[in-house]
Amino acid sequence: MPKIIEVCNQVRSKNAGPFWITIDLRFPDDASFQRYHLAPALQPNAIAALYGVDPNLIKYFSLPTLRVVKISYPRLYPQGGVVERDMHGGQQYVRLLDVELEAQ
């Protein structure tokens, strides 16, 4: 199975306020988007396991006209907190790069 880094032409993460992180997965074409946007590895339970958060709090958005999947999850620690290590949320996408995508 291909990995996210092999399928998506852009993967990024960023703040979605001081308590949330958003990850954007951009697919290069409609065929790739249709094949993988519903992959089990991108669903709330898998993301929750990967990031250690409650699956009921995961927000998943599929945007076919943009060929983008957006996934938001609550930060473990508030932005700027004493133990928070990624102020802008820009490094959180890295965990996803080697995740394998099963075609749907």
Automatic annotation (TrEMBL):
Residues 5-100 form the DUF4387 domain. Pfam families: DUF4387. InterPro entries: DUF4387. This is DUF4387 domain-containing protein. It comes from Paraburkholderia aspalathi.
